[in-house]
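Bench notes, bay 3.
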Amino acid sequence: MSEPFLNIRGIRKTFGSFTAVRDVTMDIAQGEFMTFLGPSGSGKSTTLYILAGFQDPSGGDIFLDGRSLLATPSHRRNIGMVFQRYTLFPHLTVGENVAFPLRIRRRPQAEIAERVRAALKLVRLEGFEDRKPANMSGGQQQRVALARALVYNPPVLLMDEPLSALDKKLREEIQFEIRRIHQETGVTILYVTHDQEEALRLSDRIAVFSQGEIDQIGTGPELYAAPATRFVAEFIGDSNFIETSIVSTDGRQARLVLPGGAMIDGVPLHGAASPGGRAALLLRPERIDLQRGEGEGALAGEVYDVTFLGNNVHVLVGMNDVAPVSVRIPFGHAALAGLTPGERVSLRFNAADTHAFLEPPAA
């Protein structure tokens, strides 16, 4: 089996007594779009800066195409970088900004002119060569930064929250452009964001960071449908968590008793558990079937709120001694006709659509 294109092995970074990154390990294929997703302080940007050579790791190694990068200074790694702030030279034109990496590499003038033209065409900024960054929108400036990072054909492109300064509509437009550019160039991209929707929209795979470690790596559908930890379940998509008691276990499945006394069998269980233990049951809002009246649902409650959200409707259902449960129903569904706060409803769901995460014993 061939070696991965980019191989990260046991990367660790400490600042005094604080460990910012702990044993980060992953393999990245050539041409892959890998996103580092996680909250602020989770270690994703620190890992990216170590890859770029801006910080030295406290342990571990990084191999690009079979060769360690650690002894190579950042300016010789031939890795492209796009930052949150555009870091364009304000006194230079767009063409001069894009040409800068080629000029410091002392490329011939004819080659520089051709590569700048091609890079600006790639980001759809033909004709902007003589404009100054101050006379461009934020989205256009980020396209210039992207062109500058790609103009010398780096094997790897690193992007650190490049769209967080843009408004939602513009951010979505540039996301589409980044995805298109990745497909056209085949460059390997490592992308940092705290925005789960952005990660799902762009990535081939996602590495979910938490407290300096990777909780799980997978495609968007894998992380959503089969989260390995409660943190991943909470961070990817919307979620409800219901506290339950474990009645019995069979391999990696459990029988649980829900608030109100109903039983549910065949729930995927994360971790080894014993009868009598506690588990948090994950329920995705769109996988819950709401029925009017008490019915035979696993849970029963009262409608607290009904909110129209365009293609779906959010219904908040309250129950005794349980946090309100969020339910999402497609707009126009029969269950919504005349549904108002105060109405009694029952909730049904399939065990296969749920996950149970063990809760620590009470102190």
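Next record in the batch:
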Amino acid sequence: MTEPLRPGATIGILGGGQLGRMLSVASSRLGLKSHIYEPGNAPPAGQVADQVTTSPYEDTVALEAFANTVDVITFEFENIPAEALDTLEAIRPVMPNRAALATSQDRITEKDFLTGLGLACAPYANVEIADDLAKAVALVGAPAILKTRRFGYDGKGQTRLKTEADAQKAWEELGMTPSVLEGFVDFSHEVSVIGARSLSGEVVCFDPGENVHRDGILHTTTVPAKLTLSQQTDAAILTGKILNALDYVGVMGVELFVTPQGLLVNEIAPRVHNSGHWTQNGCVIDQFEQHVRAVAGWPLGDGQRHSNVVMTNLIGDEVNDVAELSKDASVGLHLYGKADAKPGRKMGHVNKITGSA
């Protein structure tokens, strides 16, 4: 893509969940159309998109038809089959690129990439076969956490080892699939940076948000985070380093541990991110518009924050509190249009304004 997209052009989005929904809304505000590709029926994003294709990622004919209706393709989740990307890329540009996806889809690949940039991560070791397990425990020690190398999210695909004797049982719980053993880190809190990079190489970062998890799922993100000015600067610099190294286009979430020794990178997510939802009410240009601007070849917004915000996810039946929450004039409601409030399911979020920046 050499020219910026003009209003009326169509953004193709792989995935029809809440992130795809909010990308579609952002696209429409900019006069751009959206076309969702989603294997599941009645996706939340389909309620606000111009078009929806419902078909599996193995359906080459459907993928080609989808690609021929759009001008650029992006995605709301990482685990897209390589074969599907082969089909799509032959017709339209996909942003962010394959390097970013391949790096984030495998935790060992991701950590090797990050440490190769000179960035600090928790101690880690690869576990592919039974013999690797003892070596990994000897290297990393315990307590530790064992995570599948692929397909883990929201606390899924991981289990904790309290002692070295728990290693075999933990690996069996994960189905003895290729995994990574991560050592525990002495950190005071977790923060994340939402960064963006344009086609021209411009990099913009939103202010870091401070995250609190509950049952492995993000519960709140608070901005501003408890960070020194130096830590804020370091967080933005390392995020830019990652974006540039991947020749990235779009928005990325970078999760960091704050430790006495400095900032450690926990993981990266090559997409708009749950911890960036606060930007919808805290900034003029939020993370979703920023991502659309990037993949459309438009200039990025500056990411400046005008308000302090606490974002809280509404999980499961917490969505039933909406009537009460809506009475608070300082709360911005964002519901995802999901029919069933299942335990552990993200049904929406609220952004509470707590003051001016």
